[in-house]
Amino acid sequence: MSNLHPTIARVTDRIIEKSKAGRANYLALIEREAQNRPDRGQVSCSNLAHAFAGALEDQEALKANSGPNIGVVTAYNDMLSAHQPYGRYPERLKIYAREVGATAQVAGGTPAMCDGVTQGETGMELSLFSRDAIAMATGIALSHAMYDGMLLLGICDKIVPGLLIGALRFGHLPAVFVPSGPMPSGVSNKEKQRVRQLYAEGKASRAELLDSELGSYHSPGTCTFYGTANSNQMMMELMGLHIPGAAFIQPGTKLRQALDREAVHRVAAMHADGNDYRPLGHCVDEKAIVNAAVGLLATGGSTNHAIHIPAFARAAGVQIDWTDLSELSSAVPLLARVYPNGAGDVNHFHNAGGMGFVTRELIGAGLAHGDVIGVGRQRGMGDYALEPGLDGTGEDNAGLTWRDVGSSGDADMLRTAAEPFQPDGGMRLVEGNLGRACFKSSAVEKDRWTVEAPCRVFQTQHDVAAAFKAGELDRDIVVVVRFQGPRANGMPELHSLTPPLGVLQDRGYRVALVTDGRMSGASGKVPAAIHCSPEALGGGPLSLLQDGDVVKICAATGELSTTGDLSSRTAAPDPVPETGTGRELFAMFRALADEAEKGGSAMLASAGL
Questions:
Q1: Spatial strand order in the sheet of 175-177
Q2: Which of 123, 355, 391, 554 has the most Cβ atoms closer than 10 angstroms to its Cβ?
Q3: Could you list the residue range(s) of the whole structural domain that residue 210 is in?
Q4: 492 lies in the same domain as 447
Q5: Spatial contact of 124 and 115, defined as CB atoms under 8 Å apart
Q6: 518: pLDDT confidence band, cut at 50, 70 and 90?
Q7: Band of the pLDDT at 543, cuts 50, 70, 90?
Q8: Are 266 and 213 in the same domain?
Q9: Quick check: pTM over 0.70?
Q10: What is the pLDDT of residue 396?
Q11: What residue spans of 454-606 are helical by DSSP H?
Q12: Which residue ranges make up the annotated binding site for [4Fe-4S] cluster?
């Protein structure tokens, strides 16, 4: 792109350079896999009989090898509201495949955890590593070598990154991600936050809190706040892995159905024996990875993706780190304020112009790569700068169209690159003698970007809650929660800390959080240095801190440090791993995991990726 912003160009070139060996190895892998792809006409009849036995009305087409066979990998369960709509998708997808002379089979299912259900509970310690399990389950699903393309059904936090990591190892096949869309808006996010803080202070009952939460999370569809799940959908759009504009169309609508049909038709058109071959491994290149990062920064997306982007990039042979993210953030303006960084939710965001508006602004300002291959009807990102609709001309997909998105429908929600909310993307690297960490400045008022205060050191979020209730934290304070990294306990989210720390901040105290754990994709308002690397386990800097040490966290200067004399201290002893809730089954993942900046993955580390 001739108008590419110099910082975007520089970081992209740096990523390409340091990824040369890994990317070359990856492309060689998928080329070899493409060459070795079995011709089903030559596969053992016994093997084929096993594969086709359950295909019912598609059996004759499969026997004749008359068209591409699409493998569907689904993360369906009906405990996750976002994934509940997928229950009836397989039959619809098969019908859409038949329309274009293709067939579709459910290749397999993957686990799908809900971080909203496990927040503050022991199950959260399985959450990050569920991404590895999902990637491996995707690999198992696709290992039957019966497929010419992939449809990937997943939305939520670890599920999309896990599906993408697994699918990329079969990157000689084309792939389309198929979202199901957000639930309708319910209780306002401001009201929900108000009741949560009242409950934290003992001023609201549990029944009042539950009624408020049920008013927010009330029907099938993705949760409507802009957390990790909806950030996933944004990234898939800017990487060109969705049908253009598919991210935030609600379930059960005619437009949602038309976009799902288009997904099947497109993956059937992109197979290796057709005229428009677009293998996933070529679509997901260095430029696509940069687009994902730029989109995250421009929309104030989830901090969890500071871990997920490096992980799925590695699966494609690409290296990106927090220095790259921070440098990109310095050039990418904040175009959107979606709760928890603003008042409105993703439905408001979509109605104001949504992904078409954001994509148009980023590409027009030279902040994103417009020549990413994508899976739209036209190669490149042009269709992604539009919004989808139905023109009413017919019952088939001739009625699906894309149109100009126009100007922002709400300047409090969505702004142009020329007049953004702030000039940078608000994902900053902070570093010093306490290690390297991420700070989401887009969610924090600028007068709170710097906090310097004595620290109080904890080993669990429950200990923090107890100290808060006892009134022990009513002062300027840096709360340190350590031994929460990947190798210690699976790096759980610590979102339950947000209400009490928010209360302290509202009381007028200077408050910050420092942790080697994660915050939720819905983190906001309280300044936090998260994902601290190295983690405390094994003698990392956080293990040397003591109560009363003065800790400074500053997003403006990129500092994370203490005046305490760490060199003369002995590290706090590593905690004994907890058992129960299946945590003992994940001991191997904890033992093999690498640091958060590389993705916190046992699977990728042990594979040498």
A1: 103-109, 69-74, 149-153, 175-177
A2: 355
A3: 188-218
A4: yes
A5: yes
A6: very high
A7: very high
A8: no
A9: yes
A10: 56
A11: 461-469, 486-489, 498-506, 587-592, 602-606
A12: 156, 223
